[in-house]
Structure formats: structure tokens, C-alpha cells
Amino acid sequence: MSLPLLPTTTVGSFPKPEYLLRARAQRTRGEISPQTLQELEEKATREWIELQERLGLDILVDGEMYRGDMATYFAENLEGLKISGLVRSYGNRYYRKPIVTGSIQRSRPVTVRWWRFTQSLTKKPVKGMLTGPYTLMDWSFDEHYGSRRDCALAFAEALREEAEDLERAGATYIQIDEPAVSVRPQELELAIEALGCVTQNLKVKTITHICYGRFEEIYPEMLRLPVDQIDLEMANSGYDLLNLFKKNPFDKEIGLGVLDVHSHHVETEEQILSGLQKTLKVLSPEQVTVDPDCGLKTRTREEVEKKLAVMVSAVKKLRQELKSPAAR
Predict the structure, then answer these.
(1) Considering 54, 208, 248, 284, which has the largest number of Cβ atoms within 10 A of its Cβ?
(2) What is the reported pTM?
(3) HSE of 14 in the Cβ direction (CA atoms, 13 Å)?
């Protein structure tokens, strides 16, 4: 599928509707069947696909209605892991931390069925969505390998199999989220090695999302991450990463975060256009995909719809400006 200049997308997650949150709690208590829960997860996924299409986004996501936490979900579906109690991540957000208890193995596809289901709902491309090997290692308790590298590479091998299955299923975009990459700058080489294990044989467009970190400590070295596009938050930090790009050119495609997902404020078209115009003084339009800073699961559906609507509107306006003779 041919995409327009400055294609629009989202990072991955959307808020779960109340009926699904209730159903997930009921399933935990054994009050409903797995099939009933799955039907509601599919219903919620349809609703988010319909919204993305109505808003005019170019590359869609499934919204992660079938996942709890991005790390726990994969741990629940790989062998060699069990799940701990609740651990605080930030603010009042908690997740169940994976525990590596044995050799990490992938005995079956984890996300492929959900990707196939979601792609069947739309003619637009749907991204395959994986949590990266470095992040899975960093966010887990390791009781088996005793080496961060060995643990990360074990996750990477399982994710490589998953990514290759997604590609065979027809996915043309695969996003491998690595939010932990910027936390330990001294381990960037390990993150590059592990991610390379996942992407080395892929022919699809590969993306990694890294959010909210000390990028000044890993830039420009992070450009060696073996993906086609690096997706970064920009709105929350006032586009200050552009100063780094001026000193050392950003030579990959970028997923440009123009919506602050940690704010209830709905950005104005002017705010988004201003950020995009600043960016296009440093990067070419052909390098840029436009999206929120991070996943939108912490916002309400109303906030999500309003934020994405203004993002798409601003991008459409800028596309027209770029087509005009004065812009050439």
C-alpha cells in the first residue's frame, strides 16, 4: 500500500473499555470462560479499528486489548517464566513482573492470531507489535541465566521466531518496543546485539519505540539500533531532541511523537504544526512518521479521539502546504 507523505499512526496501546476491564477481572476470578473474554477483546479491537479508520490514520494498531502489561503478556506466553506479584512501575501504575525460572522457549506463536484477526478488519496496514528483548530482560527477575546478556539473547531468539512468523503471515510493519534502552546507557551495545538478533532476517519495515529517557547519553550511538525507524517522544520534552539531531544528523526514519500522552490537555492544531515545522527544518518529510509520544492506554477514549483527530488534521494541512509551489 502506498502511504502519503508524513504517514500517521499510533504507538500501540489504547485504553480498554469498561466492559473489558470488568471481563478481565471476572476471568481472573473464574467467573467467565476464556472464550467469552476473547469475544469481548475482539469486540474492543473492532471498535478501535473503526475509530482509527474514521479518523483517517494511515498505519493502524490492534490497541492491545488482549494484553495486560507489555512485558507480562509475553512472559505469560513463553516457556521458562512465571509471574510475580504486583510491582510499581511509575506513579500509581503497577505490573506483574516476569521471573525467568528456566530456559526461555517459544512453543507457539504469541501475537500472530491477533495480528491476523486485526488485519482482517481493515485494508490499511496493521503493525505487528512486540516487546523487545532488552526490555523483557531488564523488566524481569532472572533466576536462571545469571547473565544479563544471556537472558536478553534468549528472549531475542524467541522474539525472532515470532517476528518471522508475523512476516510470513503478511505483516509489513513490525514494531519492537524497547523503552528500557535509555535507562542504562552502558548497556546500549547489548540492546543493539539483542535487537539485531530479532531483526536480522526480516524484510518488512522494522520500528523500535523508545520513550522518555536520557537520549543525550546514547545519541548518536543509538542510531546503530538495527531497525528502519526509531520512534521517539518529542512533544513532552518540547522537541529538544532536535538540538541533538542538528549536531549529529538523524540518518534513519523517525516516528515523531507530537502528542503528550501523559497530559489530559488536547493539543491544538497550531501546537502540532509548530512542532512539525520545527522538525522539518532538521529532517526531511520523507523521514517522518507522525504519532503520539507513547501508547495512549492512560488516556480516556474521549481524549484519545480528540488528540488523534487534531493530529491527523494538522498533518493533512501540512501536506497541502508542502505540495504548494511556495514550499518547494
Answers:
(1) 208
(2) 0.94
(3) 29
